[in-house]
Design brief:
Layout (H helix, E strand, L loop, with lengths): L1 E4 L15 E6 L11 H15 L7 E7 L4 E8 L6 H17 L6 E5 L2 E6 L12 E5 L9 H16 L5 E8 L2 E9 L6 H13 L1 H4 L5 E5 L2 E6 L15
Parallel strand pairs: 1-7
Antiparallel strand pairs: 2-5, 3-4, 4-6, 5-6, 7-10, 8-9, 9-11, 10-11
Helix pairs in contact: 3-4
InterPro entries: CRR_secretory_protein, GNK2
Protein name: Gnk2-homologous domain
Pfam family, one: Stress-antifung
């Protein structure tokens, strides 16, 4: 479990205009592939296919290939307000980042502001990973009584909204004399209970990191949430439906 203390500054550029690198994990247990191997060739085919496909329109794409003894998949999940060209750009940046930070690893995850990209030797569709996640929080504390209870109620409301709206939701609520802005997202292939369980798992696992802080974000491969005392995502319309 990783908890990172960060001070978030309010700037105009925070509204969906940045794509900062957040974290990465090289999944050593999945092993590494050799140059020229089946894995490397199929991985490259998938990257090219996703990069030239129309999944960026919806902000999500997942593709896997297998033979008798091996499997490789790539999943790209862009933030709910970062579809189209922003999603395409983030995917390209993430792939370059993975190649540099986790060279020849069969499994790896990288997080940016606007997307999460995972390479895996397992079929991850419809599943969320309980191990590879992290938390980033503001060092300043929230001077509001019963913060945890109030935030969890707001988070639960956002999850309920996300389940009706492409598994992404953002909103705000009054918090004493302040306004709290929040966002939650689940990977597009996680539905209903899986999405809710994923968010609940992260909220409990990293409670010591986010509880009582003026801002925090918790990210996994299957879901993530964030709250701040300032708006941090744009008011763009939700991405087009996959249907």
């Amino acid at each position: 479990m990783v908890a990172t203390q960060l001070v978030f500054m309010r700037t105009v550029s925070s509204l969906n205009m940045t794509n900062a690198y957040l974290n990465h994990k090289c999944l050593a247990k999945q092993g590494r592939y050799k140059p020229g191997s089946w894995y490397e060739k199929q991985l490259q085919k998938i990257i090219v296919s996703i990069g030239s496909g129309d999944g960026f329109t919806h902000g999500y794409d997942m593709m896997g290939l297998s033979d008798d003894s091996d499997y490789v998949s790539v999943t790209n999940q862009c933030r709910g307000d970062s579809y189209g060209s922003k999603c395409r750009s983030c995917f390209a940046t993430a792939i370059a980042g993975l190649r540099r930070r986790c060279p020849r690893y069969k499994g790896a995850i990288i997080w940016y502001d606007q997307c999460t990209v995972e390479i895996s030797s397992f079929d991850t569709q419809g599943k969320f990973d309980k191990d590879n996640d992290f938390c980033m929080s503001n060092t300043k504390k929230m001077n509001v009584d019963s913060f945890g209870e109030k935030w969890m109620t707001f988070l639960d409301n956002l999850v309920g909204k996300a389940l009706k709206d492409y598994l992404y939701a953002a909103g705000d609520t009054r918090f004493g004399t302040k306004k709290l802005y929040g966002m939650v997202q689940c990977r597009t292939d996680l539905y209903n209970n899986s999405c809710r369980k994923c968010v609940g798992h992260l909220a409990v696992k990293f409670q010591d990191c986010w509880h009582g802080k003026q801002g925090a974000r918790v990210l996994g491969s299957g879901c993530n949430f964030r709250y701040e005392l300032y708006p941090f995502v744009s008011s763009a319309k939700p991405r087009p439906s996959l249907k």
